[in-house]
Structures are given as C-alpha cells and as structure tokens.
Amino acid sequence: MPQMSREGSQVETYDHIAAHFDYFPHLCDDCSFSCYNPQEAAEHEVIHNHYVLQNKAKNNYVDNLCMGIYKDCLLASKYGEDQG
Q1: Cα-flanking dihedrals φ and ψ of residue 73, to 5°?
Q2: DSSP characters for 21-77?
Q3: Is pTM beyond 0.90 here?
Q4: Which of 7, 16, 37, 55 gives 20 to 30 Å between its CA and that of 23?
Q5: What H or E segment, with its residue span, contains residue 78?
Q6: Domain-by-domain residue ranges, the chain?
Q7: Cα angle at 8 between 59 and 20, to 5 degrees?
C-alpha cells in the first residue's frame, strides 16, 4: 500500500493506484504518452507542444475503484491496517 503521509499528495497517490490498473485516461494525440492526472497532461502539452486528449479513455468504473482504494488507504493510515 502506498505510504499515506501529510507530505504525500492526493494526486501522487491516485497516480500510484491508477498505475496498478494500467489506467491512464489522458492520451496524447501526437505520441504514445498517457497519464492519469490532468496537470501532467498539461505539462506534456507545454513541454512537447503536443495535444493531449483529456479523458479520452475515461472509465467511470475504474475511476470509482481508484477513489474507493484511496479512501481505504486513508482509513488504514488513520486507524491502522488491522481494523476492519
């Protein structure tokens, strides 16, 4: 499980969880780049002068699954992993 700390960002944790599902809904129209978070997509556009299709491969089921796992990680961080 990703370490949940106050220093870690929500976006980094979402990225980590999404990577486990090979889920990258933002796809570059000019190369093979793909990512989970829109900030990374915007950076790719500016740095490489490419166009990233936001949510081109969006999957609501996987989005909700990632959010559920993120919430479980927060609860485990707050109360401990052995609580059920």
Answers
A1: -65, -40
A2: TT---EEESSSS-EESSHHHHHHHHHHHT--EETTTT--HHHHHHHHHHHHHHHHHH
A3: no
A4: 7
A5: helix 60-79
A6: 22-77
A7: 35
